[in-house]
Design a protein that fits this description.
alpha/beta, Non-ribosomal Peptide Synthetase Peptidyl Carrier Protein, Chain A, 3 domains, seven-stranded mixed beta sheet, 42% helix, [acyl-carrier-protein] S-malonyltransferase, Ac_transferase_dom_sf
Length: 545
């Protein structure tokens, strides 16, 4: 079946505190009202406050303190976002990611809004009653095959590959002790890990009893005729009215989610536009998984679709001019998560860029170029000042001021403690890209990621050889003839390379010459000619730094 436009409805990771603050759309209000009413049927408080109050608990806090409310909020967030998005564009097919399948099926008419909420509530209660031991989920910057090898090597009961999100983004689930072991092994292998704010070890064998209890509890919920196409990643196919959807949802608790395979199959069948109904980073996963598609997220209704295959939005106007620090922070989180291959919820405002997220000075310089493109920052921006910021919250304040946007009153960045990655990933080589373009896949954060061009400059290369390569690299990027890019040409005055462009080029230079993370990015940015830069690079290579 051909399906050009796909709506993606997220599960875990789709809740953002206050994501519907100030929302007046009736389709959103209806979902929140019904979700609150159904919560009352189960003797629980409503969840509309979580979705309308920016100061509501974050996902990690809810996962620990009130997993029932978190799951119902996830359902309401995805369904309300899809209903709102449908007013702008009708989807050809709906795809739910993990628990998002309940919202996708509800939006397609298989269940009414209240029954969809009841399915979620019964699911949450079954998990609370029948999950035998503490557990959760851990994201790895590995392909599924290598993650499977790691799981087999650890050989812990209940440990399983749970979700394949993108070519190098795989999630495992299991008991706490097993996840800790996986994290230690991953750290030894220099593989990046992020603990997800998931309250249970979803999509693994530990939830077998809970799945049975859930199936029994929802046997009387009515399944209605479908009004739209739904593709189930767990089933690996489109569902029909003949599909026992409640049985599928029960099986989903223990079955793996091959999201990558689903995206690729839909793309091969003609899907070209993917709309994420929420803010879980699914659009970024799609861009890293298939070429030549456009994506957008309903959390930014002013944004034009992002064309291409990388995580950098093509439209500078995607951030509305009146956005304050909170909105800028949200966009920065998505941009950094997409580039690093992390789930958005792991990239918090107060996470230390280097200590928690593994973003060294060279990677930070590379990201500065993407930030400047994303927010339309001009050449007068002080790149060194931007590089000095240690958290995205600090960077958001600087970007807001530089972009001339008003700081929203009372819009302080989130202060919740971040889910700290167990192992800080090592930065891979930055690909050589034209300004404003984006990588085809997420940065490779595994130890076998050797820069393709490191050997271009031989071990005995001196300043003259390094300068020659720098001239070719800069000329190719800028579109100048090599003879115009001389060693003593002033980078800014003669070649028009402002501080932001210089920061972007630093990432390419580090990849080309194989410079490691200990290099002082600020010192490199301070050089005003390629001759000076060549001396610095030659010295860094000679000392192994």
């Amino acid at each position: 079946m051909a399906a050009e436009t796909v709506f993606l409805l997220p599960g875990q990771g789709g809740y953002v505190p206050g994501m519907f603050a100030g929302e007046t759309a009736t389709e959103v209000a209806e979902v929140l009202h019904i979700a609150d009413a159904v919560a009352g049927e189960f003797g629980r408080g409503g969840v509309s406050g979580l979705l309308t109050d920016p100061d509501a608990p974050d996902p990690a806090t809810l996962a620990k303190d009130d997993s029932f409310a978190l799951q119902l909020a996830l359902y309401a967030a995805a369904l309300a976002s899809a209903r709102r998005a449908a007013h702008r564009r009708n989807p050809d097919v709906l795809v739910g990611h993990s628990m998002g399948e309940i919202a996708a099926l509800t939006h397609a008419g298989a269940f009414d809004i209240a029954d969809g909420a009841r399915l979620v509530c019964h699911r949450a209660l079954a998990l609370l009653a029948h999950c035998p031991q503490p557990g959760g989920m851990l994201a790895l910057t590995l392909p599924a095959g290598r993650a499977e090898h790691l799981v087999r090597a650890v050989a812990a009961p209940g440990l399983a590959v749970a979700v394949t999100n993108a070519p190098r983004h795989t999630v495992v689930s299991g008991p706490e002790e097993a996840l800790a072991t996986v994290a230690r092994v991953a750290s030894a292998l220099e593989v990046g890990t992020v603990r997800l704010p998931a309250p249970f070890p979803f999509h693994g064998p530990l939830l077998g009893v809970a799945a049975e209890a859930f199936a029994a509890a929802v046997s009387d919920v009515r399944q209605r005729p479908l009004r739209a196409l739904v593709y189930s990643p767990v089933a690996g196919s489109y569902v029909t009215d003949a599909t026992d959807l409640k049985a599928l949802l029960a099986r989903q608790l223990t079955a793996p989610v091959p999201f990558l395979a689903a995206v690729r199959e839909l793309h091969a069948a003609g899907a070209q536009h993917f709309v994420e109904c929420g803010a879980a980073g699914l659009a970024g996963l799609v861009r890293r998984s298939v070429p030549d598609v456009s994506t957008e997220s309903t959390t930014d209704t002013s944004a034009e679709p992002t064309a291409g295959t990388g995580p950098v939005p093509a439209s500078v106007d995607a951030a509305t001019p009146g956005a304050g620090v909170r909105d800028v922070l949200g966009e920065l989180r998505e941009l950094y998560a997409g580039t690093l291959g992390y789930p958005v919820e792991a990239v918090t405002g107060d996470a230390d860029l280097e200590a928690d997220l593994g973003i060294d000075s060279l990677k930070r310089a590379e990201m500065l170029g993407k930030v400047s493109t994303r927010f339309g920052l001009d050449a007068s921006v002080d790149g060194g000042r931007f590089l000095a910021q240690s958290t995205l919250a600090e960077l958001a304040e600087l970007v807001t001021a530089a972009a001339g946007r008003p700081t929203a009153p009372g819009a302080a960045p989130p202060t919740a403690a971040p889910p700290t990655p167990t192992a800080a990933p090592t930065s891979a080589a930055a690909p050589t890209l034209a300004p404003g373009s984006a990588p085809t896949v997420a940065p490779t954060l595994v130890p076998d990621a050797v820069p393709a061009s490191v050997e271009i400059a031989g071990e005995g290369a001196g300043v003259r050889d390094v300068l020659g390569e720098l001239r070719e690299l800069y000329a190719g990027t800028l579109g100048y003839p090599v003879e115009a890019v001389t060693g003593d040409a002033d980078l800014e005055a003669d070649l028009g390379i402002d501080s932001l462009k210089r920061a972007e080029m630093l990432g390419k230079v580090s990849a080309h010459f194989g410079l490691d993370a200990s290099v002082d990015g600020g010192r490199f940015l301070a050089q005003s000619t390629l001759a000076e830069l060549a001396e610095l690079i030659a010295a860094a290579r000679a000392t192994g730094r």
